Every structure is written in C-alpha cells, then in structure tokens.
Amino acid sequence: MHERALALLEQENQRTQKENIGLLEKIHALENENRTLRTEKANLDVQIHLLQNQLEALDQKKSKMLNLMQNEHEQQLLDISSESDKNKIILKQHSQLVVEKNCLENKVETLKKQLEESQMKYEKLINTIQNQQIQLRKNKEGIQDESFSQNSFRNNNNLDVKVEYLEGKNNKLKQFKKMINASTSIQCIYCSKFISTKIFFNHINLCINKNNQENSPQDESKTNINIYNLSQLPVNFLNLDQNDFTISIYQTVVREANDNQPFTEYIIQMIYQLIKWTIARKYKNFCELHTLLMNTFPGLKIQEQGNLIISDLNGTSKTIEDRCKNLQQYIRELVKIDIVRNSKPFKNFLEIDKYVEKYKL
C-alpha cells in the first residue's frame, strides 16, 4: 500500500517536472519574443523620430515657401499699383499738354489777328502821312511862303511822333493782354481778392466805382501808383501752374562760415511736373526774398505769408523743425499767387529757369 502511494507520487512528480520544463521553455520563448518586440519597438521609435523630424522640416519648408510666395504676390501687387499710378500720371500730363497746346494755338491765332489789325492801322497811318507829304509838296511848289512850309514840316514831325506813340500804346496793350491770358486769376489791388480772368474786368470796374465813393483823392493817387507798378511787370514769362509744383524742406545742414561761425542751410526739394532738383538756402535768403517781393509788388498784400518769417525772427519757433515747417509753408503760399509765382525774383530764388525749359507764350 505504501509502495503504491510512492509510485503515484513519483508519477505525479515526473508529470509536474515535465510541466515545469514546458513552462520554462514557454518562459524562455516569451522572453525571447519580448526581447524581439522591444528591439522592434526601439527601431519603430527611431523611425517615428526620423519621420517627425522630416515632418517638421517639411512644415518649415512649407512655411518658408508660403511666406516667399506671399511676399512675391504682394510685390507684384505693388508693382502693378505703381505702374498704374505712373500711367495715370502720364495720361494726366498728356491731357494737360493737349489742353495747353490748344490754349497756346488759340492765343497765337488771337495775336495774329491783333497783329494784322495793327498792321492795317499802321498802313493806313502811313498812307495818310504820305498823302499829307504829297499835299505839302504841292503846297510848297504853289506857295512860296516859307513860314507855311515850316509849319507843314512841324505838322509832319508831329504826325511821326503820334505814330510812334500809338505803336507804343499798341505794344503795351498786347503785353497786357498776354499777361491777362497767361494768368488763371489776378489779385485785385482794391479788395486783395484773387479773381478769375474771365470776370476780372467786371470786378475791377465795380471795385473802382466803390473805391471812388469811399476813398479821398489822396488815396486815389496812391492807388494809381500801385496800378502803374503792376503794369510794369514782365509779361513774357513761363506761365507756371501751381498744381504742377511739389515743394518740401526735408533736411537742414549746419555749416561753418569763413569766420568759423556756424550757420544752418535749409535743403529745399523742388518737383515741377517730372523735373526734380534740390537747392540750399539760408534763413536770411528767405528774408531777402520777402523784402524783394514787397518792393517789387507794393500793390499786393503778402503780409500774411510774411508773418511766417516774422514769427521765426521774433523767436516764436522753438525748434529747427518748426522753422522748417514755417519756411516750407511760406514758399507754398507764395506759389499760390500767380504774379509772384511767375516773377523773376521768385524764379531766381528757387532756380526755376535753370532746371525748367523756357518757352514764350
């Protein structure tokens, strides 16, 4: 009985050992499989890391490409806009040139007609003088009175003087008409308002009548002096359009004079149509210009513009920037006045004739 139990235990032990061996083999197999899976996982982690780096690189490249394409697109839009603006400017200038050409042609035709009329009047005067000379010769042959001959000679000389006087008045009339036609507006010396040339004569008549009622004879004589001064202005000038001007004082430069004293120069940038240039002027040059304009045009009221300079002279401007703004505004205000804008002192100050091509109206 005891031996049988031992035999059963031994069989059970053998079976258990076989199961243990099988389990150990399974454990080794699982450990090998686990090591293999770990190795594969490590390889996959490496591949995933590489793929992530590649994705990040692709994203960066994509972002750079998008930024580059966006910048190129914006630049193309700017170029297109710039070309469009240039074309608009060219078209505007072309239309202005066409209008100016037509205006000049009309003026030329008008001047031709006036010249023909003047020539006809001149020929009539010459014929009258010749007829009178012939009559004087006949009288001289038929009449031996020397006193009569001398009187006829004096009358002939008087006629020559009258002819020269009429020719001078005719030339002044032509010049005055040129000045009127060349201006878009004229400043009235009575009310200081800028009046269109189309209605200027009607306006000046009203102002004269009103002024005669209000002013004394002394004031009238002063007014006549102002009219005379304005009538002596040169009229064969290059008529400059204020809308074609762009004026700015964009920089100041401090220099030393010969006596080592520092002074400031104001750099003025000038643009007239497509012509661009720069000039340098000292503050005293602006003061000299204002004084010269006041003396040249005593009939014009430009004291308001002069206040921009006087305020600087009194020390109202605290900085150089303030003075630049005042001087820039002063020049821009002068450009708005036709007769000042086209005057010789103003052109010399800005060197307009040096850079802008001259032509006669």
TrEMBL record:
It comes from the Eukaryota. GO terms for molecular function: phosphatidylinositol binding. The keyword Coiled coil applies. InterPro entries: PX_dom, PX_dom_sf. It holds the Pfam family PX. CDD domains: PX_domain. This is PX domain-containing protein. Residues 244-356 form the PX domain.
